[in-house]
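**User:** Once you have settled down, spend some time on the protein underneath, comparing sequence with structure tokens, and judge whether sequence predicts the tokens.
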Amino acid sequence: MPNTAISAQLSQADRDAVMAAIATIKAKLPFLIDLSADDRKSLPKMGDKSRAFVSKAMEVATQNPDFLPRSFDLTELQKDVQLFEALYPVLMSLTQLHDLVDDTCLAVGSEAYAAALQVYTYAKASGEGTGLETAVDELGLRFARKSRKPKSQTASIKLEGAAI
């Protein structure tokens, strides 16, 4: 990965403006829903190939409504297709924006973490006797591993539990 040198700031006013814009987007789309993972899996998906299929089916249904059962709501199909077509460019724009924000957060977080690792390395190398021991120990907690129970103790606990 290239070393991205992001040197920027987001003022509180700009952050507030972005958050207000997001709130406005949510307010303008009050019909948005939140699907569960199971719901997302179970729904048929409309991709590029399906869009042409749906468009053709709607055209057939519109021109020949007599073969459809009375319970079929052609108006609702038309509304769904219109809403999908209206939302699709919004989705593409928001997806691109999400990817840019996500990539920037990842890169700037990586830069900050790499710099923090350098601080830790320098503090370890020159911290003895300078009063940095406590800070180095606290920083070192990030790399501490949890101790494992000895196998013999774990095995005896399992055996005791089985005997009960």
Residues 13-140 form one domain. The chain has a mean pLDDT of 88.
